[in-house]
Design brief:
mainly alpha
Length: 73
């Protein structure tokens, strides 16, 4: 919850969306779902798919994080 607050996310919305996305997300890319990266990951998801309570999701290509971006916060 503190990490959500630190990154400007509503914790309840974040958790609901993560629960929706996680079953479809590749296991080796779970870091993209962390609060630190969630806003960028969320922006790459299809709005019509994430709004549905159930169903498949189109997983976008891996998020590329540069060294500069990872040390920015």
């Amino acid at each position: 919850m503190a990490s959500c607050q630190l990154h400007g996310l509503d914790a309840e919305t974040y958790l609901a969306e993560i629960i929706r996305v996680m079953p479809h997300w590749p296991r080796d890319r779970y870091l993209e779902l962390a609060p630190k990266y969630w806003a960028r990951t969320r922006a790459r998801l299809r709005e019509d798919e994430i709004a549905l309570p159930i169903g498949t999701l189109t997983v976008p290509a891996p998020l590329v994080v540069t060294e500069e971006q990872s040390t920015a916060r």
